[in-house]
From TrEMBL:
HAMAP family: UvrC
Subcellular localization: Cytoplasm
Keywords assigned by UniProt, alphabetized: Cytoplasm, DNA damage, DNA excision, DNA repair, Excision nuclease, SOS response
Biological role: The UvrABC repair system catalyzes the recognition and processing of DNA lesions. UvrC both incises the 5' and 3' sides of the lesion. The N-terminal half is responsible for the 3' incision and the C-terminal half is responsible for the 5' incision.
Quaternary state and interactors: Interacts with UvrB in an incision complex.
Family indicated by similarity: Belongs to the UvrC family.
InterPro entries from the UniProt entry: GIY-YIG_endonuc (IPR000305), GIY-YIG_endonuc_sf (IPR035901), GIY-YIG_UvrC_Cho (IPR047296), Hlx-hairpin-Hlx_DNA-bd_motif (IPR003583), RuvA_2-like (IPR010994), UVR_dom (IPR001943), UVR_dom_sf (IPR036876), UvrABC_protein_C (IPR050066)
Organism ancestry: Bacteria, Pseudomonadati, Bacteroidota, Flavobacteriia, Flavobacteriales
Keyword Nucleotide-binding: no
Pfam families assigned to the protein according to its UniProt record, in alphabetical order: GIY-YIG, HHH_5, UvrC_RNaseH, UvrC_RNaseH_dom
Protein name: UvrABC system protein C
Positions of transmembrane segments: none
Highest taxon listed in the record's lineage: Bacteria
GIY-YIG domain span: 15-93
Amino acid sequence: MSDPSINVQISVLPNGPGVYQFYDSDGKILYVGKAKNLKKRVSSYFNKKQEYGKTRVLVKKIRSIKHIVVPTESDALLLENNLIKKLQPRYNVMLKDDKSYPWICIKNERFPRIFPTRKLIKDGSEYFGPYTSMKTVRTLLDLVKSLYPLRTCNYDLSEEKIEAGKYKVCLEYHLGNCLGPCEGLQTEAEYHGQIEDIRQIIKGNLRSSLQTFKQQMNVFAEKMEFEKAQRIKDKIDVLENYQAKSTVVNPKINNVDVFSIVSDETHGYINFLQLSHGSIVRSHTLEIKKKLEETDEELLQLAITEIRQRFNSQSREIYLPFPVEVEESLKVTLPKLGDKRRILELSERNARFYRQDRLKQIKIVDPDRHTKRIMAQMKADLRLSVEPTHIECFDNSNIQGSNPVAACVVFKNGKPSKKDYRHFNIKTVEGPDDFASMEEVVFRRYKRLLNEEEPLPQLIVIDGGKGQLSSALKSLELLGLRGKIAIIGIAKRLEEIYFPGDSVPLYLDKRSETLKIIQQLRNEAHRFGITHHRNKRSKGAIGSELERIEGIGEKTAEQLLKSFKSVKRIKEASIESLAESVGMAKAKKIYKSFH
């Protein structure tokens, strides 16, 4: 049975692609993995019995889960590899299940071969990995093969044997896939220069290879050897195309720290991304509780110092969303466009996701704190004098003036209180007059609450713009409640919030929790009102069908519906059964009308 806190952490994971990290009780990283759907993948560790023993051991040790969201699956694959190389999680190396992980081997020999392997032999060879997918290994090796002509034979190419002419070039040489070191046609220094470039490519640094190829291309172009220059240009295109596909950000962005912040009334959430050779190698989000009226600038300045010290960052450039005072030796960039702006947006996205996850967890484990935070947010956003723990919303429903009705829905502590909902049939208004209907309903509602000495709301929401708001205000004025209860109107078109006496509406952020609650109130009032309106129209239609029969009035129609439940059954009934309900004379009229 999994830890309850783990279940809460899983419940708030997003359903998109990303990378997840498992930590133990000491905060040490256990495992890094990628997922097309983070919630489904992480849940799978805990909702089924694991087949392999080491996986079961891993799951038992997990105490916390962190994640990084990325735009695509390919970004998740690369980010996973970067984090594994950087963090060296124990279970990414040790957790082999039924097979070992693939590595790339640069063989310890005079003209080294490069090949994939699952066995690590201690003979002085270099091994890069482990990789979680053989597909990644093959992609890298295909790239290397397309750029550099390397030998594939297993000959012992010692200096003595080459000088003795023991070997002859093979088909690979004639195809251009090898430069013939076996016959001394390629020097050892030239070959090792290629190997060094390949090392850098495997590590994710493609810059040196690109520089080398561009120099070669320029040399051939100056000598007018354009075919050779074109072949080198093709290699540059291959390398740049691979680079674009395989890095999360622009490879020109190197050794940079990225910081962003999102905040609410009580906390700030600062995300940190560390970039190296065009790839994200670390992500961390710090939650800071606000003291008094701290600004985002103050929180970000504090977090930059704290995070850079914690992770011992040596980067000399940082990307920020707005200017902040930092140490003089740091170069500060405020990205506006292109790849730099996109990486800052990715950081902001991770900060928002972290905040949402924390709020969802709080909602589950501490609902009172969640409610207090929402109420404090609404009080600030709507400029109220008190927190709106009791809100009422009104909506009118009519179709071309027929059966005009209104609805009042009640929210307490940000949640619907359905037992307090009320329907109103419009009594004093003739025709489709929404303003007069609103005035009548608001007056009746609060006249009754005052008479019954029931508690009044802190906030009234009117579904409509300035016209409906003015009508509701008239009623509050008559009852002596104007100024005692806050009242706003919400117009549907652009979700403008109107305040009494203010012609300029307030536009809340579309992601604002305050706006979401007001929209929920408005939608609930509309739904509740429409349901009542439909029922009334339906009953009216049924009653009028019976009342159209000569000699049958409203009371007779009600008696028939009470006895037979529907018009269909009345139509199918015999004269005798109808007579039992309304007498023989009326029964004959009804039967004759339907037959």
